[in-house]
């Protein structure tokens, strides 16, 4: 970067120095000298521009190398880190979806077992209370005893089954460890890519200064705003508590809607 | 509230559709169908005689807000109660949904209790 600053500094000081001489020679009517000066100015500017474009090209090349993108070899065995990261994230989606479905399967299997057990216990308790009030005759009592016996055996067995489901639900959460590791690696890559891109942007801005290119900031901003159109959605908010324009929970939504007359 | 009413659940994630379906079943609503975005949902709504629509916002193809606008613009569907269940939490989005004619708005992550309250509130109003 220091080198860049000095080459730009050279250009600016040559520009200043020659500007005075240029005005001077023009006032004195020395047009030959003036053309010579303009030529020298152009050369200094071109030299700086070539240097910066050269540096930009080198940076771009090393960035491509560090991302392992090889445009020459589309059939290369080794995939780029970006492709690899994309595949890793797809794996995260697959793993979390699998875990969610496995958990819901087990809940759906366990719920009816518990519901049936609860319903049977309720029926049995009604009859048992009749027995306590001495409303049950001997033959019915024998049948009731059989039911209680069966119910106790089934309770034991099914509590065991549901406990197994709960254990499996616990195990289904192992995705957290695996996806956590994958996401951390991708995060590291994204940070690297960002800092490399930032370097490229800085290089490119030097080229812009030499070439005197000015970007239409308003147009750039308008393009950016368009990307943020609310209809397209933003997905979950990560820093909802720190942002004024975002609700922090259902209570906030309800307040907002009631202020609108809902 | 009619427990047999026909409900369409629209979300691009099958797990979220399944969660909502399970919660609705726990509330006694078993007559549910699913769609994965607005483009698939709209023809189902047009031909299916649904009584209630639960939709996400952010989906590939047609988004939930666009689906809501299409529903409100359709002569036969415009009175269909719509509940939005979404991660979209910007104030301007909630206002946009309200202006487009949504009947309720639930932000993810949500609880079974919140879903129940909102559904009850919507049908209290619709029936009053």
Automatic annotation (TrEMBL), chain A:
It comes from the Bacteria. Residues 220-250 are annotated as: Disordered. It holds the Pfam family CheZ. Keywords: Chemotaxis, Cytoplasm, Flagellar rotation, Hydrolase, Protein phosphatase. It is an enzyme of class 3 (hydrolase). Plays an important role in bacterial chemotaxis signal transduction pathway by accelerating the dephosphorylation of phosphorylated CheY (CheY-P). This is Protein phosphatase CheZ. It comes from Pseudomonas fontis.
From TrEMBL, chain B:
One of its GO terms (biological process) is phosphorelay signal transduction system. GO terms for cellular component: cytoplasm. The keyword Membrane does not apply. One of its GO terms (molecular function) is metal ion binding. Residues 6-123 form the Response regulatory domain. InterPro entries: Bact_response_regulator, CheY-like_superfamily, Sig_transdc_resp-reg_receiver. It is found in: Cytoplasm. Its cofactor is Mg(2+). Keywords: Cytoplasm, Magnesium, Metal-binding, Phosphoprotein, Two-component regulatory system. It comes from the Bacteria. The modification 4-aspartylphosphate is found at residue 56. CDD domains: REC_CheY_CheY3. Pfam families: Response_reg. Its main location: cytoplasm. The keyword Hydrolase does not apply. This is Chemotaxis protein CheY. The gene is cheY.
